[in-house]
Amino acid sequence: MAKTACALHILVDNETLANELLAKLKRGVSFDTLARKYSSCPSKRNGGSLGEFNKGTMVPAFDKAVFSIPLLKPYGPVKTQFGYHIIKVLYRN
């Protein structure tokens, strides 16, 4: 059976901003708030939620991170052709 995950992300175009957002998350600022304000992905309307997706669906660097990082802990930045992602995995099956 395919592995699945549910994750949130914030997509920005530079690493400096990604690191600043990661620091804010570590200080307790809401992922939802930062995603809605800063993310360039349409998922920002849902607080950065990508919903549930199968392993292999996302671009390789993003996919690798989602299926290996600790759960519920903001992680990043992860660079892809889209920009820099801060990722928070809610669960994996």
TrEMBL record:
Catalytic function, reaction form: [protein]-peptidylproline (omega=180) = [protein]-peptidylproline (omega=0)
Keyword annotations from UniProtKB, A to Z: Cytoplasm, Isomerase, Rotamase
GO MF terms, alphabetically ordered: peptidyl-prolyl cis-trans isomerase activity
The protein's Enzyme Commission number: 5.2.1.8
Domain PpiC span(s) in chain numbering: 2-91
UniProt-listed Pfam families: Rotamase_3 (PF13616)
Subcellular location per the Swiss-Prot or TrEMBL entry: Cytoplasm
Superkingdom field: Bacteria
Enzyme class: isomerase
Family matches, as InterPro entries: PPIase_dom_sf (IPR046357), PPIase_PpiC (IPR000297), PPIase_PpiC_CS (IPR023058), PpiC/parvulin_rotamase (IPR052204)
Entry function: PPIases accelerate the folding of proteins. It prefers amino acid residues with hydrophobic side chains like leucine and phenylalanine in the P1 position of the peptides substrates.
Protein family (similarity comment): Belongs to the PpiC/parvulin rotamase family.
Protein name as catalogued: Peptidyl-prolyl cis-trans isomerase C
Lineage: Bacteria, Pseudomonadati, Pseudomonadota, Gammaproteobacteria, Enterobacterales
